[in-house]
Amino acid sequence: MSCTRILDKVYEYGGGEDMPLLLQLRIGLHLLICPGCAQEVERFEVTRDILRNDFLPPAPEGLEDSIMALVAAREETSAAEVFEAPGGLSTRGWAISGIIIMVSLVTAFFGLNFERIAHEAGMSFLLPVGITIGIVLTSYGALFIGSHLKEFSERFGL
Q1: 22 to each of 2, 7, 29, 78, how far by Cα in Å?
Q2: 51: how many CB neighbours lie within 10 A of its CB?
Q3: pTM of the predicted model, to two decimals?
Q4: What pLDDT, on the 0 to 100 scale, is given for residue 82?
Q5: Cα dihedral: 92, 93, 96, 101 (round 10)
Q6: Which residues have CB under 8 Å from 74's CB, separation 6+?
Q7: What span, in angstroms and rounded, lies between the C-alpha atoms of 82 and 67?
């Protein structure tokens, strides 16, 4: 077997005892002959042992009890109280922002010589402009609906 296949099998079985006996013998024989693979397997085993035993220190006494008490307290509170967003933009603020966006999109081309640019560039100019306007309006609508989802569901009975 080649070195890469030997190492793949060691990694696949995690160097554990669930490896078939014939495969253990083949790997052991290869490790006797190939010092590079033997060193790599030894590094793998040391790393595996460190991760199993010394990677995370033991939890302090009583940590599990305090965490479970916090989980039980959270379950008692309602979901609306937990996820209530502080402040935010009011519906009036969203409407004003929407009007400003619409006016700016409509009047953006008054300062340019729009007819000449559109005539010279043709679809190569109008397509990105249309895509940009569509992205802006879609993003605004999605953010508005997402931030007022609770109000809409109450208003429309959803």
Answers
A1: 16, 16, 11, 59
A2: 10
A3: 0.38
A4: 47
A5: -140
A6: 82
A7: 17
